[in-house]
Sequence to fold (597 residues):
Amino acid sequence: MSRVVFKTPGEMNLLGYILRSLVERNLETPKGAKVLSKMKGTVLVGASRMTVTLDFSGGDLAMEVGAQGKADVRVRGSMDALLGVSLGKGMVWPVMTRRLKVGGKVWRLLRMLPLLKAEGA
Amino acid sequence: MNPQIKDALIHKLGKEKVKDDEETLRRFARDITENPEAKPDLVVFAEFAEDVRNVLVEANRLKVPVVPVMANTNLGGLAIPVKGGIVLDLSGMNRILEVNEEDQYAVIEPGVRWQDISEYLSKNHPGMRFAYPLSPPDTGVLPNFLMDGLANLSLRHGSSTHWINGLEAILPDGSLLKTGHFAYGGIPCTHSPFPKLEGVFCGFAGTTGVVVKMSVQLWPEKKYRSQLFLLAYDVDHAFGLIKDLIREEFADDLGTLSLASGKMLFGDYRPVYKDPNEPVLFCYLDFSSNFEFDFKSKRRIIEETVKRHRDRGAFFDGPLDLNDLVRLEPRFAKFAKFPTRLDFLLDHQGGGLTWVGTYGPLSRFEEGFKKGSEIMLRHGLPPVIVARPMQGGHFGVLRWISVFDRDNEEDCQKVHAVNVDLADMAVNLGFFPYKTPQWVWDRYRDRLDPTFRRVIGDIKKTMDPQGIMNPGHLEL
Fold:
């Protein structure tokens, strides 16, 4: 059974709430659950001024406000660009136009994307 | 209570409309606020104006208090029968009597709910539009109008008393008062040119009679509609933008919701934590048109105005389309279609909801928002704040909302304490609570002009010489 938790209960920013909601809904599909079960490592997501650290381990996801520890992969950009990726508008153009910046082990980010898909994306 | 009244009412209305079993009495003893419970002695379920008349005549004869009630969700505790007596439930009077498309009005009874009129218009008059508040769909239209509420067209048209064309009310002596064009059997499309007699029922908390019929304004539905959200990181920047957008006079609705409101939407019951890097509030914009070019130009006005503010150093995310937000988080759909049930405010342990909802000047919005946030956080409550300009920005609503457990005395005391502090702050800033609870009148009585108080008292006495109508409320 996969779990998505805030490391410090009650302490989360709006970005974290949005990400948690997306992941939890995608976990309801077999594909989403499979992706999470295989995810390991730390991903740092920054949208606008907010940052959230996602810590994946054996089917669980723990989230924390801010940049915590050394991340395996980092993605940062405007809120519109980041939400655009969830909405299925693609990553290539925002990355090319520098509205989205990606660093570290990018393939891990690509593997994680199905967990962040919005409805109908 | 005079024991004769029960028999008299059963004789006139029938046994099935007059109840005094414990379960029914308890149901009407409290609302969703922290205001203390008070049990009625009888509950009468009216179905027709004649039922109302019979109740008032008997109650007046035997000097028994009468409290008119619809959904029992008033946020000022105004439908709690603090002096006992009869609760007169009007929810059975739920007929939509007329819709006139050409003259743009509907005539409704007091038990008509928001969902009733929404469904009725969608089905029978899709070209017409009504204004909806953030109240649950199963609450009453007419009480909201009488208590001067607001809705999603209030930016254009002001508070809801402005949309009353005329009404019919039964006075405590049993006589029927007709106002506006109802007075001579005309078409009730406006109250003009008559003396605005509706006023003796608006804001009077049911102390002057029972309105049994009302003509309310409708507006034309529009072909294109869009709802956008911006995330704002600074209160001054947010309200600066909102005020500039108001003056472009293109929007149906503009407003702000604090960040805590958004977090509650995501299921956090009391989100008091704030990351210093996250937004402080959501700005929402709602606009519509029948013409695509006009619709697009309105969108352009928003983008240009936001850009000008960004150029001056303001920081916003968005505008984000509400349809996209719904795809990201389906619970955003609560804001997409009205009437709506904001379940995150209502469906929780103890089900309590209370507020200090005030009307006042836009020039003090920023200060009220900031000071209100500080007060709520000091009391350990999340700053759930709604701010909406109304009537083209001539005034607006600032509302501080708390959810709590009604069955927990400590929680009730906590939210009352925060409400008192918020009201003090708001009144000093130039805002005054609407749907005004009696504790507010008590607290600020000495600040009210003595002649204002006397005239309110004189009107109540003229309309209701025996003082049977909703005693214990609007006592100045």
About this structure: The first helix of chain A runs from residue 14 to 26. Chain A has one domain: 3-116. Chain A has a mean pLDDT of 93.
